[in-house]
Amino acid sequence: MKIHIGKNLLSKINRLFDLSKFSKIVVLTDENIPESLIDKIERSLNRKPIRIIIPAGEKEKNIETVQKIWKKMFDNGLDRRSLLINLGGGVVTDMGGFAAGTFMRGIDFLNIPTTLLAQVDAGIGGKTGIDFMNIKNGIGVFEDPIGTIIDIETLVTLPKRELVSAFGEIIKHGVIFGREHFNLITSKKPEDYSQKELIKIIKQSIKIKSTIVKKDPNEKGLRKVLNFGHTIGHAIESLSWKSDKPLLHGEAVAIGMVVESKLANDLGMLSKNNLKIIEKSVNKAGLISKINNIKSTDIMTMIISDKKNIKGEILFSLPKKIGKVIPNIKISPEKIKIFLQQSLQLIN
Prior knowledge:
By secondary structure, the chain is an alpha/beta fold.
């Protein structure tokens, strides 16, 4: 899979990829993507693509929306030699990849993530999916795009909250990879990095994730380290959908990292000093490390149904230090319940 990172790449798509072999091209996007961005891509393709525009937001990431995408693909006469271009944030790349991977048993797709979070996370790695029964990414397949285009110019109009949210995943990469990268990504507030510095951060985050994914594409072992912060984080994110202030994915992961780091410290894995550094990095980025109105019993219910569990055993990926995360740590439901009850003030 080719990954192109830089500035003004959306005007060069036809030079970056040979699109002549595709019978039809569809651009899938949501209502938040500016018309000017879609127009730029259409000019770059040198052909008129079919547009599919869906409502924006995590609540749209479901089987009903996928069915609408499939129907439009059939209605427009797509065949197995067609290409789907996913233009948008993580919802679009996750759901678009799933729709492409299952349409007629699979057609090619190209990701163009337009948010920082999608550029360092959802837009790469080959995970596709939708939310189901209030379970984040409960249904999906592993399917790689033919490539990913990351154009830093798409971040110019990105709201500050979206930019900051991405640092939940970026800080996670730093905890996994090591102190040098961790120091780079925590040296400033997210909004204070220049475009040049952001390109460097994006490249390094992608390198970290891609190296891990290449060694374990279907998440049988090593890739599970990328789930640090996600067992608690996904639970909190899913529960927040019921409130009037739903969390962004990176915000939930940031809370998850803090709580799971405290769990690692409680288990004697992580030093108090490393715990403080991780928590401080989250707060410095402007990410919240606490949340109101979520009960420990509700979190426990979500954890029990987490897709990363095996044979009923609850598995965490927890940090031993900054630069080393250990996957497949089995913790009994009783232990987790006690921890959450005792630590409710950590997230409330």
